[in-house]
Design goal:
single chain, alpha/beta, Aspartate Aminotransferase, domain 1, Aspartate Aminotransferase, domain 2, seven-stranded mixed sheet, about 40% helix, globular
């Protein structure tokens, strides 16, 4: 079927964090919310149909996960990424961030250090510090608008005996980088040589553009398969984050059992009644929707880039190869981080993510969520142009 991504759906007052938490996040409800990684599109019709059938049952008790649940995930990864996952090494979890948080607590100690590559998803800071571990930054280097790994710095920090874990964001959020095989191999080898556990967050791995190809880190080599923990999910892909489901792929059953036991100790080991149904339908029948979504979002990228080039040249957006998030370089506006945030909220009336939360030493960046109807994006760009012209 043909999906209509131009449809504007009123999400106000429907318990959507993206909309209903504007006052809490921005101090006002009077902003177009283009922040948290949540799409303003209805999900694939087969997923809706499956959940509707489940709703009609009227019985939503404790829910099991049949083999078909894991089969759907494994078939998807094999079909899309050529990754043949061993079902015996797979665990369910509420989400990728909770999974990484528990992995950190299980396989490192308080006072240990965790390596991250900034700018990066702000939760990488948060879960590390909340667990009593120290953040060590391998800052990505900007070269002519593109961001690259400083491997000399990466290796130097990985050699620090206090560094026990590396959180890799692949594909990268917020820069939208799809790492190449050579980049992944070099990062893995450095970690492996220095007994640093590599944990790969691959939640955006289905949202890939411009002919690039996602490479699951664990598929690099047999050595990688035996030493990498992978965190994957279809919730970002199909806009199902509210149903809470992710998959963790371990290199061995001993790690899997430790992870499962952690959640069992809190009696957290079941999906909600709709989550498993939705995820199976997504992986088995959602591909048609996804292909149309990718085309639409790619056009949204082009729209923002063209608009800024023509009308707001002081703001320079990247065109990502992954995710639906654009990194805006606003440094030519000459504002502090505080001034920039206030400008977007009060003058442009836009609710974006502050760039400094992804890299605490950065000034002058914002993150824009483009997963919305083109008309919403058009209005947002007009408001931003007007605000910049008033400066």
């Amino acid at each position: 079927m043909v999906y209509n991504f131009d449809e504007v759906i009123d999400r106000s007052n429907n318990r959507s964090s993206k909309y209903d938490e504007r006052l809490k996040k921005f101090g006002t409800m009077d902003v177009i919310p283009l922040w948290v990684a949540d799409m303003d599109f209805r999900t694939a019709q087969p997923i809706i149909d499956a959940c509707m059938e489940k709703a009609k049952e009227g019985i939503w008790g404790y829910t099991s996960r049949p083999d078909s649940y894991y089969d759907a995930i494994i078939d998807w990864q094999l079909r899309r990424n050529g990754w043949n996952i061993d079902k015996d090494k797979v665990s369910w979890c509420l989400g990728v961030v909770p999974a990484m948080s528990v992995i950190m607590k299980l396989f490192s100690e308080k006072g240990d250090s965790v390596l991250i590559q900034t700018p990066v998803y702000s939760e990488f800071y948060d879960i590390t510090e909340a667990a009593g571990r120290n953040v060590v930054e391998n800052q990505l280097v900007e070269v002519d608008g593109a961001w690259e790994i400083n491997f000399e710095d990466f290796e130097k920090k990985a050699k620090d005996p206090k560094v026990k874990m590396f959180l890799l964001c692949s594909p990268h959020n917020p820069l939208g980088i799809v790492w190449t095989a050579s980049q992944l191999e070099r990062m893995f080898e450095i970690c492996n040589d220095n007994d640093v556990l590599l944990v790969s967050d691959e939640i955006h791995s289905d949202l890939i553009f411009h002919g690039t190809r996602h490479i699951p880190t664990a598929t690099l080599s047999p050595k990688a398969a035996n030493n990498v923990i992978s965190c994957i999910s279809g919730t970002k892909t199909f806009n199902l984050a509210g149903l809470q489901a992710s998959t963790t792929v371990f290199p061995n059953v001993e790690m899997k059992e430790a992870f499962d036991q952690y959640w069992m100790s809190m009696d957290v080991h079941r999906n909600n009644a709709f989550s498993s149904v939705a995820m199976e339908a997504a992986f088995n029948e959602g591909e048609e929707w996804l292909e149309q979504l990718l085309t639409y979002i790619s056009a949204n990228f082009d729209y923002v880039k063209d608009y800024c080039d023509k009308h707001i040249p002081k703001i320079k957006p990247n065109v990502p190869d992954a995710t639906y998030l654009m990194w805006l370089d606003c440094r030519e506006l000459g504002m502090t981080n505080e001034e920039l945030c206030e400008f977007f909220i009060k003058e442009a009336k836009l609710g974006l993510n502050e760039g400094y939360t992804f890299g605490r030493s950065l000034t002058g960046f914002m993150r824009l969520n483009t997963a919305c109807p083109r008309s919403v994006l058009r209005q947002a760009m007009k408001q931003l142009e007007t605000a910049v012209n008033r400066l």
